[in-house]
């Protein structure tokens, strides 16, 4: 056994904050803690692999102490038109009042982030969904919709979402196999979801696929999910691969964490864990530079997700690390971050001065894949300018593959949680990490069930 780090966690019984240790044992990372009232607990750390943990710890050890609360999840409904055997929210198991539009506006009043996420239950069951979107847009926020996609198989519904001003759809999409879908979601929905994807493509709605992976059920779908995303990367911008959140209804499966997903990715594609480590560092530094030059402050990249940037090269999948010397690029970006931190004025001008022009020019001339990527970016910018009147990246064929994880009361690591930028509304107008909120909600639900 080897001590990796010290942190804070929660007692899984009383949710009191307690001291915790991250240790390595048998090539796995564990989080261990003791509550004075309820004793000793340990569980596999959310990251799972000690190597992955150390890589992220090195990146985040000097991060801003406060995350930038960029996204706010609002649960607008507890009802759902599915009754999934796997459902962390326990949809349809309890009745909760649906907040009015006025109440939703009050929940987000004063939120300093950029985006409001509509969640549930299934938000598309709200009769006033389009009014909700319009009212939030009037307040200046981007609006994102979590959905299982059943209602989006209607092209008119998808079109109305686009016309109303919705910015992004996050679609639950776990598998291409109808039998697996029935195990996970209780119904055969793959055809319906593919139809929804096609309508969203036709109305030019950016799409984010969220795949929940259950070991022994649908992990064989990882390669196909990645290839589908890359092939359609002109409008599918993110594929998020997450293990089952071990809360709520969890069906029958063997538990799995981030390290298990990495193994499936490496076995099913030629994308390596190193591609994700380097891609995460790139994303972290880019966001950090952006936050500094816009004077918004705070960290905008969570510790508990790792990402890789991918794009098509004929029938093959390329990563950013194969197009450019990404380790050297990350060193350049880190150097820019450090210099900007020491500067209080003229950060945009200094950014132009600090950019590694010689390195980028050399990579452009000596790396064919980087040259093709740059030319693809330039072509996309010009096409967007001609079509929309301003340059943009919406149709750029580059996507992010994200491997994420969830915290439970047993394995929550508060050092990771404090870097989370996806918040939920708590009582009394407070905003906290979505994982913290769900742990609290499920604890209350279990307490009510025990009393019955």
Count of separate DSSP helical elements: 16
Extended strand count? 17
Helix content: 40-55%
Low-confidence stretches: none
Morphology call: globular
Q: How far apart are the termini? A: 43 Å
* Fraction in beta strands: 15-25%
Oligomeric state of the chains in view: single chain
Strand order of the largest sheet: 14-13-15-11-10-9-8-7-5-16-17
Rg on CA atoms, Å: 22 Å
Reported for the largest beta sheet, the result is: 11 strands, mixed
Summarize model confidence as the mean pLDDT.
Answer: 90
Structural class: alpha/beta
How would you describe the overall organization of this protein?
It is built from 16 helices and 17 strands. With 452 residues, it is α/β, with parallel strands linked by helices. The chain has a domain at 2-65 and 407-451. The protein has an eleven-stranded mixed beta sheet with strand order 14-13-15-11-10-9-8-7-5-16-17. A four-stranded antiparallel beta sheet has the order 1-2-3-4. The protein has a two-stranded antiparallel sheet with strand order 6-12. It starts with a strand and ends with a helix. The model has no long low-confidence stretch (mean pLDDT 90).
């Amino acid at each position: 056994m080897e001590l990796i780090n010290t942190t804070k966690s929660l007692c899984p019984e009383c949710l009191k904050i307690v001291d915790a240790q991250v240790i390595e044992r048998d090539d796995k990372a564990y989080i261990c803690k003791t509550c004075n009232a309820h004793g000793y607990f340990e569980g596999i750390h959310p990251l799972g692999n000690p190597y992955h943990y150390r890589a992220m710890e090195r990146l985040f050890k000097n991060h801003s102490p406060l995350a930038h609360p960029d996204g706010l999840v609002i649960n607008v409904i507890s009802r759902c038109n599915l009754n999934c055997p796997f459902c962390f929210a326990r949809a349809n198991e309890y009745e909760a009042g649906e907040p009015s539009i006025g109440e939703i506006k009050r929940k987000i009043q004063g939120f300093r982030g950029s985006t409001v996420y509509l969640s549930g239950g299934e938000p598309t069951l709200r009769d006033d969904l389009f009014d909700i979107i319009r009212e939030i847009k009037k307040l200046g926020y981007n609006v994102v919709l979590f959905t299982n996609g059943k209602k989006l198989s209607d092209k008119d519904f998808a079109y109305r979402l686009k016309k109303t001003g919705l910015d992004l759809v996050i679609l639950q999409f776990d598998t291409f196999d109808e039998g697996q879908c029935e195990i996970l979601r209780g119904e055969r929905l793959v055809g319906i979801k593919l139809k929804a994807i096609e309508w969203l493509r036709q109305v030019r709605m950016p799409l984010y696929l969220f795949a929940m992976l259950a070991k022994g059920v649908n992990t064989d779908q990882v390669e196909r999910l990645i290839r589908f995303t890359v092939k359609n990367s002109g409008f599918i911008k993110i594929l998020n691969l997450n293990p089952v959140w071990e809360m709520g209804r969890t069906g029958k499966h063997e538990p799995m964490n981030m390290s298990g997903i990495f193994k499936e990715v490496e076995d099913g594609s030629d994308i390596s864990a190193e591609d994700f480590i380097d891609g995460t560092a790139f994303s972290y530094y880019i966001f950090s530079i952006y936050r500094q030059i816009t004077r918004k402050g705070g960290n905008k990249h969570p510790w508990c997700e790792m990402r890789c940037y991918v794009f098509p090269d004929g029938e093959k999948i390329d990563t950013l690390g194969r197009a450019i010397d990404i380790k050297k690029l990350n060193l350049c970006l880190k150097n820019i971050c450090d210099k900007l931190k020491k500067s209080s004025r003229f950060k945009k001008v200094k950014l132009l001065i600090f950019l590694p022009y010689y390195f980028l020019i050399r990579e452009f001339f000596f790396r064919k894949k980087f040259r093709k990527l740059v030319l693809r970016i330039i072509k996309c910018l010009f096409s967007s300018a001609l079509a929309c009147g301003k340059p943009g990246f919406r149709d750029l064929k580059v996507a992010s593959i994200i491997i994420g994880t969830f915290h439970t009361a047993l394995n929550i690591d508060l050092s990771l949680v404090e870097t989370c930028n996806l918040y939920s509304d708590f009582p009394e107008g407070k905003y906290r990490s979505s994982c913290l909120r769900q742990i609290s909600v499920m604890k209350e639900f279990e307490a009510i069930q025990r009393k019955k």
